[in-house]
Design goal:
The structure is a homodimer. Chain A is of the alpha+beta class. Chain A has two domains: 79 residues, Winged helix-like DNA-binding domain superfamily/Winged helix DNA-binding domain (Arc Repressor Mutant, subunit A), CATH 1.10.10; 45 residues, no CATH class. Chain A has a three-stranded antiparallel beta sheet with strand order 1-3-2. In chain A, a hairpin with a 7-residue loop joins strand 2 and strand 3. In chain A, helix 2 crosses helix 3. The longest helix of chain A is centred in the middle third of the chain and has 13 residues. The first copy, chain A, is globular, with a radius of gyration of 17 Å. At the A-B interface, strand 6 of A face strand 6 of B. Strand 6 of chain A pairs antiparallel with strand 6 of chain B. The complex binds manganese (II) ion (2 copies) and zinc ion (2 copies). Chain A binds a DNA duplex through helix 2 and helix 4.
DNA sequence: ATTGTTAGTTATAATTATTATAAACTAATT
DNA sequence: AATTAGTTTATAATAATTATAACTAACAAT
């Protein structure tokens, strides 16, 4: 019911596929960082019926547009998404190619002193690259 | 001569193509942020002979490996590169899709309090997204 | 419930950035 | 000059993503 309302309230029809993808994405306490490819595999594991790749793409983009997912800037051949849509910082493990959330309290306050005329700051995010 | 030595010293042959690309990339005081596509256009403007796309890719990757260029993590369909290879922060103008360097003095020191066992910090970079 | 309307799903094709291939060429070395 | 290894190039292959269009499911109105 939770996801049915969530989808209806944002003008998205609660289809079987979307509800199943919701479960995979949001039925967990931990932040989930993923590529479409990884999400597809997780769906196959957890769900018995098939969801087409096009639907996975469509759903992820629909959810992103509605603010339930955000894209994470990482240089990879695939796009990374995040179920944590707040502004937040990341560790990126270069060896494992894994993203890990940093709490805002893990990073001191960041003071941007420079200003650009006519532009305002939308977000400030830190990427901390890790290696062994 | 400048670039001939630079290339020779890093074990790259100073070919006509590489020297011309060097001029486009490094003959400027300002940091140059670019995609392969943008670089290709700039080459066509500034150079009369033709350089094949494969060579542009090869050269950019060779220069990146030698530490003359670095990749910038930005969500785009194309990969961004930077002639400023030091660890530094960026403004990213979401409207113009343009990267602008921040001086380290424009951002106060950043204190990462969390640690991951067995991993060490390789870089800490801030991305400040701007909009109108 | 039946119907019509609209949104969503799907298989598949198209697109596009990037990488691989292999032959031709060029710079460096002997 | 001849040899060698590195580089360039046109072109093909790859792979992530997006577009297409027929089919299907959700929903509102009757
Ligand atoms: Mn990319
Ligand atoms: Mn990217
Ligand atoms: Zn995150
Ligand atoms: Zn820069």
């Amino acid at each position: 019911m939770k996801y049915i309302d969530k989808l209806r309230n944002s003008g998205l029809r609660p289809t079987k596929q979307r509800l199943q993808i919701c479960k995979v994405l949001f039925d967990t306490e931990k932040t989930f960082h993923f590529t479409i490819n990884e999400l597809e595999h997780k769906i196959k594991e957890k769900i018995d019926n098939k969801i087409s790749l096009a639907t996975v793409y469509n759903t992820v983009h629909a959810f992103e547009k509605k603010g339930y997912l955000k894209q994470i800037p990482i240089n990879s051949n695939q796009t990374y998404f995040d179920t944590n849509v707040t502004d937040h910082h990341h560790f990126y493990d270069l060896n494992d190619q894994r993203l890990i959330d940093l709490e805002n309290s893990d990073v001191g306050p960041i003071n941007i002193k420079k200003k650009i005329n006519g532009k305002r700051i939308k977000s400030v995010e830190v990427l901390v690259k890790l290696e062994d």
